[in-house]
Amino acid sequence: MPEQTGDRGIDRTDPEDAIAAAAKRCSNWGRWGADDVLGTLNFLDEAKRREGAALVRRGASFSLAQSFDADGPQKGWRRRTNPVHTMTDTGLDAERGQGFPHGFGGADDVVFMPLQASTQWDGLGHIFDHGTAYNGRRAGDVVTSEGDRVTGIETASAHIAGRGVLLDVGRVVGTDGELPDGFAITVEHLEATIAAQGASAHVGRGDLVLVRTGRLARARREGWRDYAGGDSPGLSFTTAGWLHRTEIAGVATDTWGFEVRPNEFDGAFQPLHQVVIPHLGLFIGEMWDLDALAADCAADGVYEFLLVAAPLPVTGAVGAPVNPIALK
Fold it and tell me: How many CB atoms lie within 10 A of CB 5?
């Protein structure tokens, strides 16, 4: 496994200056106009969707969603709980009569859940930098008690479908397909994975990039423990420039927090989020289940596919559940 103690250009004692410098280097503010609400999804155009559709050859499909149920990973951090599913009408109700004519009966149900309880996208109103939202807007003007009135997740609902590419860093760089908690995935690790996987793993403008660490596989083997909120492998803060330079449309991981935990600065909290969401306008997916897809990619040597991953269009939401489907 590559050494993790080398100089990655990080002064652990100064997250403020590092965040400010990265935000300035990587800003997409104004790139698509003052009224833009799509951020990096602007890179995912019709040609890119046609490219993604052309990748479906076998017809194999993979759901990349974890289960949405009471046995999920949440432990109450920031009042995030696992979904609660309740039946409002059941088969027993139908047997006893529900007031419908000619023997008609049915079942209905309801679910209560935080929108980021399981597999989900972070929207552009989810994270701010010093009270500022994506494209230089005041956070208080964007997200109010009524929700995100500017960049609500519904604005992305028709756009997230195109060429997906899996970077199985856990398999290429890790041990037994997994990276340990606290492992910071650098640009060098991403590029080494692309090189090892071959031409189908190239990453470019408009792609939807999936980064597998193996963290979910370990949680399934050992129990949830602190999967949702604890230490984890993830992207290094130093990948901000790569995420900007490659002009990808979105990125998702099999971890709770996308970036490495503990973070790489003393006393910091999710500094990469603070750069890539409000400054790049980058869509981030978390808690995706990449294991079955990764096994298939390793078997056939093809790491690109059509990815259809529209978030549930909850008006004004700053994040939303998704059942991503990869088709090969």
Answer: 5
